[in-house]
TrEMBL record:
Seems to be required for maximal rate of protein biosynthesis. Enhances ribosome dissociation into subunits and stabilizes the binding of the initiator Met-tRNA(I) to 40 S ribosomal subunits. The gene is eif1a. SMART domains: eIF1a. InterPro entries: NA-bd_OB-fold, RNA-binding_domain_S1_IF1, TIF_eIF-1A, TIF_eIF-1A_CS. This is Translation initiation factor 1A. Keywords: Initiation factor, Protein biosynthesis. It comes from Halarchaeum grantii. One of its GO terms (molecular function) is translation initiation factor activity. SUPFAM superfamilies: Nucleic acid-binding proteins. The lineage of its organism: Archaea, Methanobacteriati, Methanobacteriota, Stenosarchaea group, Halobacteria.
């Protein structure tokens, strides 16, 4: 278990944990962030075909500086990683 903990990516700078609540289409998703804000998040091109995001997934998002209701997805956690984050109390 301790080896897995080192592998998990934790939020940096402005990033926050979020849960995907709705798929909007056109590479956009609705997320509920840990700070209590609902945001529309954009899936960047580098993740579109490589990482499949579904409702209920835990992701890292970086809110936009100029529009707080929008964000960019930076990382998606696998189910086992998300369970570990919940067990450790991060999410």
């Amino acid at each position: 278990m301790s080896e897995e903990r080192r592998d998990l990516r934790m939020p940096e700078d402005e990033e926050v944990f979020a849960e995907v609540t709705e798929m909007l289409g056109a590479n956009r998703i609705r997320v509920r962030c840990e700070d209590g804000t609902e945001r529309t998040a954009r899936i960047p091109g580098r993740m579109q075909k490589r990482v499949w995001i579904r409702e209920g997934d835990i992701v890292l998002v970086e809110p936009w500086d100029w529009q707080d209701e929008k964000a960019d997805v930076e990382w998606r956690y696998e189910k086992s990683e998300a369970d570990q984050l919940r067990e450790e109390g991060h999410v």
